[in-house]
Write a structure and sequence with these properties.
Elements (H helix, E strand, L loop, with lengths): L1 E7 L5 H18 L5 E9 L2 E11 L2 E9 L2 H25 L8 E4 L3 H15 L12 E6 L1 H11 L3 E6 L5 E6 L5 E4 L6
Parallel strand pairs: 1-2, 6-7
Antiparallel strand pairs: 2-3, 3-4, 5-6, 7-8, 8-9
Length: 191
């Protein structure tokens, strides 16, 4: 796993950098040995140090944590402990639901001819009164249960997730509402 250590407004010395790299890899590797990459950011504001950690543990799954203290080492320790707790909980949920195999992934792509045709249709329809919407991306849609999708947005800190519902095969979305609760959009439930 590749680790990137950066400092904002401060110089992260070689000793701290090597400590962060080794402990980060050890802690994440304890739960997910094939993690993809990690990032550690340290910054100093007035009398406190803040550490932000981010680990990309699997395709589409990212864990984030942060910590603060009066010295950089303690701030990193606090952030790493929080990350370990999140990783432990996530791993426990994966194991308890017996989802050891990777979920099927559907890849949505459009070729350039389809995009150009869509753009021409949009331009003709809008006739310049509204901006043309151009979306050129590839999106992988995981097949998950609703509880797994909610778990992913809680773990990753994302605000929404588009997924294929494992129960009915329909495309669904879960999102974090302004009041902190989770919303679920299931088109198959509409009349």
């Amino acid at each position: 796993m590749e680790i990137v250590v950066t400092g904002h407004g401060m110089d992260v010395g070689k000793t701290l950098t090597s400590r962060i790299e080794s402990e980060f890899v050890e802690k994440v590797g304890r739960y997910f040995e094939n993690a993809i990459e990690g990032q550690a950011t340290l910054k100093r504001q007035q009398r406190h140090f803040f550490a932000s950690l981010r680990a990309h543990i699997a395709r589409g799954t990212t864990i984030e944590s942060s910590g603060s203290a009066v010295d950089a080492h303690s701030a990193f320790d606090a952030a790493l402990e929080r990350m370990a707790k999140q990783l432990r909980r996530y791993k426990r949920k994966l194991v308890s639901t017996n989802h050891h195999s990777p979920s099927p992934i559907i890849s949505l792509t459009t070729n350039s001819a389809e995009r150009e045709q869509d753009n021409r249709e949009e331009a003709a329809y809008g006739a310049g009164s509204e901006p043309v919407i151009v979306a050129e991306t590839t999106m992988t849609i995981p097949e998950l249960t609703v509880s797994m999708a909610v778990n992913r947005i809680n773990i990753s800190g994302r605000t929404n997730l588009f997924f294929r519902n494992a129960a009915n095969g329909q495309l669904n979305a879960v999102y974090r509402r302004e009041d902190g609760n989770i919303g679920w959009v299931d088109p198959s439930m509409q009349e």
